[in-house]
Design a protein that fits this description.
- The chain is about 35% helix and about 20% strand.
- It has a six-stranded parallel beta sheet, with helices on both faces. Strands 5-6 form a two-stranded antiparallel ribbon.
- The protein has a single domain, classed as Rossmann fold, CATH 3.40.50.
- β3, α3 and β4 form a beta-alpha-beta unit.
- With about 190 residues, the protein is α/β, with parallel strands linked by helices.
- This is Esterase YqiA.
Amino acid sequence: MSNVLYLHGFLSSPQSVKAKSTVQWFAEHHPDVVVHTPALSNYPSKVFGQLERYINSHPELLQDGLKVIGSSMGGYLATYLVERFGGKAVLINPAVKPYELLIDYLGEHVNPYTNEVFELVAEDMDVLKALDTEVLSTPDAYHVMLQTGDETLDYRQAQAKYKAGTLVIEQGGDHSFINYPNHLPAIASFLSVG
């Protein structure tokens, strides 16, 4: 039995298309793999503590090395976790400097999946920045999937940060990563599950 942690992005949820297709694909092709999809807090200042508590309450995630898939902000969180606990991560159009990106989004938001109203404040950016990992201790622990047409993030930031890892760069596409399910066999292979 293997365990995979899937981390959704900002303004997303376990009900996102990628999260659901990941769970469905593993259930169909590798039923011995448990995919964990926690609903992450909309507040960046709370999410890191939430993740640590989740991992502490699910020690099976660390049994044979942490295996995590992170999309967008989830990719930033996944990098933090791998640098902290070890393991491997697959990052999909990951946020590299979310504290720079989200500074333009301070104020009130509504999560479209949960309808939760929340407010981003400057302190959230400080928390995000404090947990940045500028130098990766094990660059080969990362398989990074980028599409150049990402309208939300500049893929070149991730290309530069993870250049010593495994990079898959597709021309075009968008922030959702078009045709993501086609990559799930390679994702499972990289994470050594199935």
